[in-house]
Amino acid sequence: MCAARGDAPGGGRYGEAVFRPEQAGEGERIDFGALAYDDITMARLRALGAGPGWRCLDVGAGTGTVSRRLLDEAGVESVLAVDRDVRFLAERPGLDVLQADITAPDSLHGGFQLVHARFVLMHLPEPESLIAALAELVAPGGVLVLSDAVDLTSDRTPVTPYTTVMRAMWEGLRATIGTDVSRVPSYPHLLRGTGLEFVAAEIHVPPLVPGSPISRFWADTWERSRAAMLATGLVDDAAVDAGVRYLDSDECAALSGGMLTAWGWKAEEESPS
Ligand SMILES: C[S@@+](CC[C@H](N)C(=O)[O-])C[C@H]1O[C@@H](n2cnc3c(N)ncnc32)[C@H](O)[C@@H]1O
Asked: What is the pLDDT of residues 87-111, one digit of tens each?
């Protein structure tokens, strides 16, 4: 893959400046996101054909929920789960685990029928070159599937305790580790630019219901990025606390960030005539 150090103004990286895996509760935070999105992800991967005989790569696999469900529910042949920190991943028959930084050169080699990366590229620099490198890992006839967050608010969205904290979160993560969700809607275009074909995309927005996995995911994420949010000057501790209370109250009437999933297929190799 490609060499790239974080391009955040502060030079920080995922897992170091924020979302440190060794901090208690980080696995649970990832699992709340997985609970909110895994069924949607699995439905899409299965609709794309993930099943028996497929060799799969799960990039930035986190706690491995998708990797395991690919094996258990879709019945794929194998999954290679890769992460910069693999403490939440355990090997088992069919599931191989590799600790690697996907921004390092030559960290991965192909070819897989499915290459999947969810909520990873948005945190990393140079998505164009990362997407091109991931496309290289797809076997002929295989598919690259990318999911990342989209911010569906605009300057006309009503101001609520939720939107105030979310705005500070995106800005704080951008400044601290370079997270940038503004480029996520470009993924279909970027996939096509790598030469992948039959590109398409969809968005899922889980309802923000008090106590739901997505509400708990945002509350946990705010807690873990509180310092980055305060540093923006957009919120103080009281505003973050108000956002957490709002999420858990009947007052909550807001649109969550969504998950955009985009995919593209690598052409089959032409058989010699
Ligand atoms: C938000 S979690 C998503 C986990 C999982 N894909 C999911 O959707 O449940 C992001 C994951 O990407 C991993 N990650 C971040 N930067 C990485 C890098 N440069 N190389 C490999 N993995 C990375 C993190 O360690 C973390 O497990």
From this structure: 999 999 999 999 999 999 888 998 9
Angle, helices 213-224 vs 161-177, to 10°: value is: 50
Which of ligand 1's atoms lies nearest the C-alpha of 117? Answer: 6
What is the CA(40)–ligand 1 centre distance, in A? 18
Contact between residue 149 and residue 181 where contact means Cβ atoms under 8 Å apart: yes
Cis previous bond, 111, omega within 30: yes
Ligand 1 contacts (CB < 6 A) are 14-15, 30, 33-34, 60-62, 65, 83-85, 101-103, 118-120, 123-124
Give the domains, in start order, of the chain with CATH numbers. Answer: 26-150+178-206+258-265 (3.40.50.150)
- Phi first, then psi, for residue 84 (nearest 5°) are -70, -20
The C-alpha atoms of residue 89 and residue 107 are separated, in whole angstroms, by 18
- Read off the pLDDT of each residue in 180-185 and give the average, rounded to a whole number: 97
